[in-house]
Specification:
The chain is mainly alpha-helical. The protein is 70% helix and 0% strand.
């Protein structure tokens, strides 16, 4: 598993493996722009699924118009978050691509990127009263953190090989990652709701990252015009959505209290852009 909600991203798998299968660099398209496009598209998908799930579960006082607006708000917010994640992946790939061992360096960067969340989770696991009484829990946390970082390193190298595979193998990988993302989202909404914030933060980050990686296996050749269009659309939609939230108390409540991903994005917004939350 990799995490990126906190900014690190499994930029794993960049460098030569970001090029067209066969090792040669594509004459059209740009791997860095592919990451950006994938991040925005995956974020919009994640946000739309997040809000749609909340609507299906039922939100008191939410009209059909507000339901559509909630989906649009969540999609735009998470699209920007996904774009930031994709940009970080592209930056990692650019750095790794200028080294002698791009695959290994990219995997190291991926592990470093997710290190804050992995370490945080390893120690947060023993913050409960009973868990804190486990003998040697600090040492166990260190071992878990190291194991998690090692897993990210290995998975990142494997993802790089998948990027360089045939179109059919990339498609299979994309479907597998998509299913894993859906599983993380379902677990986030169903298991221990409103308990253990670190657990839900990790599942939210995993959902977004897995979706970005899934879309990236499909979007292999980025285009400047397409990346620019998606970026402008995501930023403008995000700006408009915060204004929409300010104008509706019901929509604000639904976004803050009933979504899993959009609520995290709202808390991460700068104070000047953050719509005031309304107590239930």
């Amino acid at each position: 598993m990799a995490a990126g909600g906190g900014g690190g991203a499994p930029s794993g798998a960049t460098g030569p493996s970001d090029d067209v299968p066969g090792g040669g660099r594509s004459r059209v398209g740009c791997p860095a722009l592919s990451w950006l496009e994938s991040g925005i598209l995956a974020g919009a998908l994640a946000g739309a699924l997040d809000a749609s799930g909340a609507v299906v579960r039922g939100i008191g006082g939410l009209s059909s118009g507000h339901a559509v607006a909630l989906v649009a708000v969540a999609a735009s917010l998470i699209a920007v978050a996904g774009g930031i994640l994709g940009a970080l992946c592209a930056a990692g790939g650019w750095i790794a691509g200028r080294t002698r061992e791009p695959s290994r360096v990219a995997a190291v960067l991926a592990a470093l990127g997710v290190a804050p969340l992995v370490v945080y989770d390893a120690f947060a696991l023993f913050t409960g009263h009973q868990a804190a009484a486990v003998p040697g829990h600090a040492a166990i946390s260190v071992v878990l953190a190291l194991a998690g970082l090692g897993a990210v390193f290995a998975l990142s190298r494997g993802y790089g090989r998948r990027l360089a595979a045939t179109r059919a193998r990339r498609a299979l990988g994309a479907v597998a990652l998509l299913l894993l993302a859906f599983g993380c989202q379902l677990a986030n909404r169903s298991i221990l709701p409103r308990l253990y914030g670190w657990f839900h933060l990790t599942l939210a980050a995993a959902t977004l990252i897995l979706l970005v990686l899934s879309v990236r296996l499909i979007v292999v050749r980025g285009r400047r015009w397409r990346a620019a269009l998606l970026t402008v659309a995501a930023v403008v939609a995000c700006w408009l959505s915060t204004g929409e939230l300010r104008g509706s108390q019901v929509l604000r409540y639904a976004a803050h209290e009933r979504t899993a991903l959009a609520s995290l994005a709202l808390r991460a917004l700068p104070t000047a852009m953050r719509p005031t939350a309304v107590a239930a």
